[in-house]
Design goal:
The chain has 50 residues and is mostly helical. The protein has helices spanning 3-21, 31-44. Helices cover 66% and strands 0% of the residues.
Length: 50
């Protein structure tokens, strides 16, 4: 992955998180589900736990 691709992926991720944060509290998903979704998204971008 190029540096440009990494920054584009990061920008998309931050935009996605910003949308999620702007949802009214009573309409948000549970924190556990949100965490799993973020983790899966990072894995899709090529990040790993190792």
């Amino acid at each position: 992955m190029s540096l440009r691709g990494l920054f584009q992926g990061l920008r998309q991720l931050l935009e996605w998180w910003a949308v999620g944060i702007n949802i009214p509290v009573d309409e948000r998903v549970k924190p556990e589900r949100f965490s799993r979704t973020v983790a899966f998204h990072l894995l899709d971008l090529g990040y790993s736990a190792s």
